[in-house]
């Protein structure tokens, strides 16, 4: 009987159904283990010869990219400052002497000055000066085409005063000259100011500042400069303080090297001397 009971006993002890098996790791724990293994591998790899060479290459390429970016930003900044400086070493003096309501001035600006400036603006010190007379009557200035021309001259001088970049005020002056018969109508001034990003109110306030004496003084100064140089014809172009061309009566005269914009560009390039590092 006892032997039968022994034979009926199971070979393995029955497991307690209440015992819990070992819990499986969560996904977050598995990911953490993977990250630890990756970091350990990267540390070991970085200490190897291959890892050291890769680090050197990465540092070298990064340094080269940073150097190129700094160099490009320096070039952009230097070009910006050269464009906006009123005077810079080596630039060639370029000046146009005009009357705001003169058709010869319109042709001169359109055919020669503007196209040339598109190519050599960074190589010249450009200035617009005006032709007229000093009197002891009225405002003390007189213009060939009447008081409206004097006001047009003052508006263009005010544009140069508030917006000294030639690319801006020369464009405004060309816009006015294209409709010189309408100078100084409010509609024309507003149109040209808007076209070239100027404030009409600034221009208007400039012509009326100090009871108008501010703009009159600018015009008088310009007239005196022109007279001192002995220039009488609108439009007269000087390069390097020497007469380069005169537009008078619908014709080009006193030409030094041709009447085209290309000839003016060639003359500027011939006279231009790039600033040396010592000038910086």
From TrEMBL:
Transport keyword on record: no
Main location: secreted
Keywords of this entry: Glycoprotein, Membrane, Secreted, Signal, Transmembrane, Transmembrane helix
TM spans (from-to): 57-82
Region named Disordered: 1-25
Keyword NADP: no
Subcellular location: Secreted
Pfam families xrefs: GILT
Amino acid composition bias (Polar residues), ranges on this chain: 15-25
InterPro entries per the UniProt record, alphabetical: Interferon-induced_GILT
This protein's name: Gamma interferon inducible lysosomal thiol reductase
Organism: Cladosporium halotolerans
């Amino acid at each position: 009987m006892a032997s039968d009971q022994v034979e009926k006993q199971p070979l393995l002890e029955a497991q307690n159904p209440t015992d819990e098996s070992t819990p499986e790791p969560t996904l977050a724990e598995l990911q953490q283990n993977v990250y630890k293994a990756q970091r350990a591998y990267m540390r070991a790899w970085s200490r190897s010869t291959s890892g050291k060479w890769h680090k050197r290459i990465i540092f070298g390429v990064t340094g080269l990219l940073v150097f190129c970016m700094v160099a490009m930003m320096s070039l952009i900044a230097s070009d910006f400052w050269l464009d906006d400086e009123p005077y810079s070493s080596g630039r060639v003096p370029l000046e146009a002497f005009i009357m705001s309501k003169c058709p010869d001035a319109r042709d001169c600006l359109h055919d020669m000055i503007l196209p040339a400036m598109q190519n050599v603006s960074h190589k010249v010190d450009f200035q617009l000066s005006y032709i007229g007379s000093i009197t002891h009557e009225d405002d003390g200035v007189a213009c060939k085409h009447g008081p409206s021309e004097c006001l047009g001259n003052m508006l263009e001088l005010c544009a140069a005063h508030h917006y000294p970049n030639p690319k801006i005020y020369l464009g405004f002056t060309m816009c006015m000259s294209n409709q010189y018969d309408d100078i100084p109508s409010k509609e024309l001034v507003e149109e040209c100011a808007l076209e070239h990003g100027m404030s009409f109110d600034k221009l208007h306030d400039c012509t009326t500042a100090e009871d108008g004496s501010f703009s009159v003084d600018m015009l008088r100064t310009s007239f005196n400069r022109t007279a001192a140089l002995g220039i009488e014809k609108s439009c007269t172009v000087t390069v390097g303080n020497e007469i380069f061309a005169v537009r008078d009566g619908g014709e080009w005269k006193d030409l030094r090297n041709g009447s085209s914009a290309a000839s003016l560009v060639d003359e500027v390039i011939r006279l231009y001397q790039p600033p040396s590092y010592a000038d910086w």
